[in-house]
Write a structure and sequence with these properties.
One of its GO terms (molecular function) is copper ion binding. It holds the Pfam family CopC. Strand 6 (79-80) and strand 7 form a beta hairpin. The protein has a single domain (27-123), classed as Sandwich (Immunoglobulin-like). The protein has a 5-stranded mixed β-sheet with strand order 2-9-8-4-5, with no helix packed on it. A 4-stranded antiparallel β-sheet has the order 1-3-7-6, with no helix packed on it. The chain is of the alpha+beta class. Helices cover 16% and strands 38% of the residues. The longest helix is centred in the N-terminal third of the chain and has 16 residues, at 4-19. The chain has helices at 4-19, 22-25, and strands at 30-34, 40-41, 47-52, 62-66, 72-73, 79-80, 87-91, 99-108, 114-123. The structure holds copper (II) ion. Residues 23, 26-27, 109, 111, 113 line the site of copper (II) ion (CU).
């Protein structure tokens, strides 16, 4: 029969291996975006570009854009950069008027994990 000390030790080993699982560290986090978060741009952008810490699956990744009057902005289909699998490009189907815009993004990274987030930028 195992002593309680060895059971405790085994439990700690299991816990440590769960916490140190590399996949848990490989989620795609947003590292850079254009227009930049909290930026105020002079001209309406033609696309949103989002860079992540990991490669993303374009078929399961995208973003919605909400305008100053809480309206949904029309966007094209999100695609992944051909040169950079960590970059997602969302073309905008309309010119943005002055005001504050909110980007809600969601991605599935190449390891199959989902992440999402939100940021805002403004058009002068
Ligand atoms: Cu992951």
């Amino acid at each position: 029969m195992a002593s309680s000390a060895s059971m405790l030790r085994n439990a700690l080993i299991v816990l440590a291996s769960v916490l140190a699982t590399p996949a848990a560290l490989a989620h795609a986090h947003l590292t850079k975006q254009s227009p930049a978060a909290n930026a105020e741009v002079a001209a309406s952008p033609q696309a949103l570009t989002l860079n992540f810490s990991e490669g993303v699956e374009p078929g399961f990744s995208g973003a919605t854009l909400t305008g100053p009057k809480k309206e949904q902005i029309k966007t094209g289909k999100a695609s992944r950069s051909e040169q950079d699998k960590t970059q997602l490009i969302i073309p905008l189907a309309q010119t943005l008027e002055a005001g504050k815009y909110t980007v809600d993004w969601h991605v599935v990274s190449v390891d199959g994990h989902k992440t999402k987030g939100q940021y805002t930028f403004s058009v002068k």
